[in-house]
Amino acid sequence: MLKKISPLLNADVLYALRSMGHGDDLILCDMNFPADSVARETSFGELLRINASAADVARAVLSLYPLDSFVDDAAARMEVVGKPDEILPVMDEVQNEIDAAEGKSWPMIGIERYAFYERAKKAYCVIQTGERRFYGCFALRKGVIGPDA
Question: Which residues contact 9 (CB under 8 A, 6 or more apart)?
Fold first, then answer.
């Protein structure tokens, strides 16, 4: 255990988050996502796991991880097939964690299911959560932390 670091963030996840650079994507996915096969195509090359809800994992990750303020798609969700504008409770919960971490409204964009898979394959890494609800899949693009003023 470490002070001020969520116990959900295991050593492998901390290593991956620290290794990522500006513009790298992190995928948080649910239990139904083809996580292992997609993770093998990422830069990190292996699947990471945190057995907690998508919102809890997002909160833990975003306690350390800055979102990219230079792009419009730094936070994204997989769209519901046939209903791209529908926002499910799991999406709303993660949206609340993003807004809380950033201290302002930071809307997620929607990405069509197969386009989301392609973005995930190009990501730095994939963290499979313990989320069992459908469409609990999110992409978070890493930003920067500026120098001390």
Answer: 17, 50, 60, 61, 64
Catalytic, 117? Answer yes
Catalytic residue among 15, 22, 36, 114: 22
Model pTM? 0.96
Among residues 30, 65, 117, 135, which one is catalytic? 117
Return the structure tokens found at 54.
């998508």
Residue 114 is among the residues annotated as catalytic for this protein: no
- Of 96, 141, 113, 109, which is closest to residue 30 (Cα–Cα)? 113
Give me the count of residues in the chain: 149
> What digits encode the pLDDT tens for the residues 49-92?
999 999 999 999 999 999 999 999 999 999 999 999 999 999 99
What residues pair up with 125 in beta bridges, in sequence order?
A: 26
Residues 6+ apart with CB under 8 A from 136: 28, 29, 30, 54, 90, 91, 94, 129
Could you say which of 25, 68, 124, 135 is catalytic?
68
72 annotated active-site: no
Fold classification of 22-141 is: RbsD-like fold (3.40.1650)
